[in-house]
Write a structure and sequence with these properties.
- The complex is a heterodimer of chains A (about 120) and B (about 110).
- Chain A has no helices and 11 strands.
- Chain A is mostly beta strands and about 120 residues long.
- In chain A, strands 2, 4, 5, 6, 9, 10 and 11 form a 7-stranded mixed beta sheet that branches. In chain A, strands 1-3-8-7 form a 4-stranded antiparallel beta sheet, with no helix packed on it.
- In chain A, β4 and β5 (about 45-50) form a beta hairpin.
- The radius of gyration of chain A is 13 Å and the shape is globular.
- Chain B has about 110 residues and is mostly beta strands.
- Chain B has no helices and 9 strands.
- Chain B has strands at about 10, 20-25, 35-40, 45-50, 65-70, 70-75, 85-95, 100, 105-110.
- In chain B, strands 1, 3, 4, 7, 8 and 9 form a 6-stranded mixed beta sheet that branches.
- Chain B is globular, with a radius of gyration of 13 Å.
- The termini of chain B are far apart.
- The chains are: A mainly beta (about 120), B mainly beta (about 110).
- The interface of A and B includes residues 59, 60, 95 and 100 of A.
Amino acid sequence: EAQLLESGGGLVQPGGSLRLSCAVSGFTFSSYAMSWVRQAPGKGLEWVSVISGSGGNTYYADSVKGRFSISRDNAKNTLDLQMNSLRAEDTAVYYCAKDHWGFRLLSDFDIWGQGTMVTVSS
Amino acid sequence: QSALTQPASVSGSPGQSITISCTGTSSDVGGYNYVSWYQQHPGKAPKLMIYDVTDRPSGVSNRFSGSKSGNTASLTISGLQAEDEADYYCGSYTSSATLVFGGGTKLTVL
């Protein structure tokens, strides 16, 4: 059974940094693109970033471009999100999500983690 | 990239059918058959209910169906059940190689 387990969330001051991780099991990790999706308290879903299966292609939402960096280690089956220059509006539950299809990017997400909370506050 | 437009709330009685709309542009919903729908219960992760506009993942009830016309996609739930009460989000691939979600619709089963 495919499983995603996020970690690394917590409280950070504005302007600070945080690194999230997502441990993957149950499928051939390197064959699928992976994304981060966030949800601010009481708000809707917002796609944040995607990385291709090989790690060679990455894309970001305008709201995080230049501040966040997505990466993966296919040998360790892990996905990371490095978040710098954090703002109050980055406060959210961050989910890692698996692309449904290995041959397409960002069509839909069939497996989601349980999420990790990031709070940006002084 | 602006969020896709969904009604904030819809409601229906058990056994009835409801439809949730999701309106975008020719750069997202209208330009690609990569529209998906997610169900989210409070405190839980989203669950994929519909992909590629009309297709259901294995294990999802056939009471859930999807369609698209122009820049508007729709999710229909027939034979409403109490457990269908949740938030529903549409998502679409965009011409910028990003993904955009709708603002979400709260479904209340009366």
